[in-house]
Amino acid sequence: MKEHDQELYQLEDDLRDILSPYVVKTPSNEDTKQLLSSLQYEFSKLQQEEEDEEFVAERPNLLTQFRSQLSFYRWYFWIASIGIFTMLTLFTTSMNSGSAETVFLFTIPLSIILGTFYTYQSWNKEMRIVESVTPFPPALLFLTRLLIILAMNVLLGLVSSIFVGVSLHEVTMGSFLLYWLAPTFIVFGVFAFIFLMKGMKLAFGTATSVWLALFIGELYVRNELQYIYPSIMDYVLLLQFGLFAVGVFLIILSVKRSYRVQIVQS
């Protein structure tokens, strides 16, 4: 045993001189100061480069957000939407053109209102807190989702209109499209604009009131005034064109305002 210990001691003595350069020692204060002094020049150089570079904030891109927000809606939402428009198409292909216009005027703006309500209800408080710290304003994110609703309804409405136009030969496609596009855009525009200005409750109530007013007014014109003033439908067409233009204008204003709104009211 003693011989074994003696061999270990001897080995330690033999290796001490060889391994001593590789032993890491705790740096002293002088060593630290020397290291910082040698690095100070590089730090100053990096700081100067950062000051010279002009910082340009990334501007939120609506198209990029549009693509990224598509995942917000689940597959069953798309299936349900397609199912609604399929039933709308099948239901109206057996009607006359006037009745088909009325059904489209009633259904598609209503689909917009329900879609916006679904979007808001799905946007829970926790998600709003997370999105409030992203580089993109929360209002822009929410408006992007609403624009997806609008685009989906317009696209499916166009497809349905084509089928109705093929089935009902008396349909004038231009006036038929404007008959439901105008209410759709004005309802959406009113909702988006008031939502960013006053919050969800007032926007939902106002948009619903506009939709009901347009629907009731259309029924009154078609069932009462049309027989008294046969040419009134020409003025209705002009009114619809004006509503469509106002709706587009309100949507553009809403998009611009959404870049500046940081707090979304309920």
Topology of this structure?
Blueprint: H1 2-19, H2 29-52, H3 62-68, H4 75-92, H5 97-122, H6 125-131, H7 138-167, H8 173-198, H9 200-228, H10 232-258
Helix pairs in contact: 4-7, 5-7, 5-8, 5-9, 7-8, 8-9, 8-10
Which terms would index this structure?
80% helix, transmembrane helix, 266 residues, transmembrane, mainly alpha, 0% strand, membrane, 10 helices
Write a concise synopsis of the structure shown:
The chain crosses the membrane at residues 75-96, 102-120, 140-164, 176-195, 202-221, 227-253. Keywords: Membrane, Transmembrane, Transmembrane helix. 80% of the residues lie in helices and 0% in strands.
Structure description:
It is a single chain. The chain is an all-alpha fold and 266 residues long. It has one domain (65-264). The chain contains ten helices and no strands. The protein has helices at 2-19, 29-52, 62-68, 75-92, 97-122, 125-131, 138-167, 173-198, 200-228, 232-258. Helix 5 (97-122) packs parallel to helix 8. The longest helix is centred in the middle third of the chain and has 30 residues, at 138-167. The protein is elongated, with a radius of gyration of 34 Å. The termini are far apart. Mean pLDDT is 77; it is low at 129-133.
